[in-house]
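Format notes (please read before filing issues)

Several people have asked whether sequences and structure tokens are stored in separate files. They are not. Every record keeps both together, in the order shown below: the sequence lines, then the token lines. Line labels are part of the format and must not be stripped during preprocessing.
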Amino acid sequence: MDKIVQFVQKSEHNATAVAIFGAIGVAVVALKALSFLKVLVDVFLRSGINLKKYGAGRGGWAVITGATDGIGKEFAFQLASKKLNIVLVSRTESKLKAISEELEQKYSIETKYYAMDFAKGADEDYQGLQQLLTPLEVTVLVNNVGTNHDIPTPFEQESDKVLKDIIEININAAMKMTKIVVPQMVSRKNGLIINLGSFAGLVPTPFLSVYSGSKAFLSSWSQAIGAELAPKGVHVQNVNTYFVVSAMSKIRRANLLIPMPKPYVKSVLGQIGIPGGASTPNTSTPFYSHAIANWAIDNIFSRGYWVNHNYNLQVDIRKRALKKREREAAAAKSQ
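Then the structure lines:
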């Protein structure tokens, strides 16, 4: 009889444990489902902060770095269409002049431009830019300029110049540009700083280690200064970007996961202040397929899995890039 009682009690304990774990499992699944639903609501139904808050149509100026190609150029045109005056900052003066004239003619706004090579990190360049910006009411800063490894490369094989350029352009330029404009934003208690981040900063990317590290820095730094500046009326948003068709990505065709710059920038400017797929503070992943991918990285499989996935992906890209170099070298030699 005692054994029967013990068996019944044990069965009851097991059933209770199963019920508890089952309830926990249901709760976890429900929370995951709700978080995914929030992502869909964010990217398809919610509207972000109106750019009028940041001086659109009221004499405000937007400063855009890396403004003559790809995403940066698209930011210039879309912000100008919202009636923000534009300061273009990039390396090639002829391109800057042409875009400046086109913006003024098309949108009836004011423009200024400043030619500088961010890779040099020259103090006199930043001083000259500060003199240009000081009299203006700068309400928006887009830290877009960036560079990457030429091809996926093991860290010990990468050139010192590439390492230096990535640090100078991706990290130092963002800090120095922000340092120039933040004081006047704080004094007016109004401003928007958009930092162009990357999924490479979300998940470490082997063979693009320094680029990946620079974007991880940008993510952490954006969160830190975002917390500092929010009480002072300045909104900081690190935009977590997957691939976009651009010269830097070396991708020429758009698909579901890789948009053209125009729809991508439209999603960024339409969802200021909305996280989309991002789960970290002062961060957004606004483009719908990027947002879903960001959610998947945060919620499906381990971070180690995604690092290994990036490793295999970059190994494959490196192999194809090296074969392309071999073909080009052979073709040049035969000429």
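For reference, the curators noted about this record: The chain has one domain: 58-315. Residues 8 and 47 are 58 Å apart (CA to CA).
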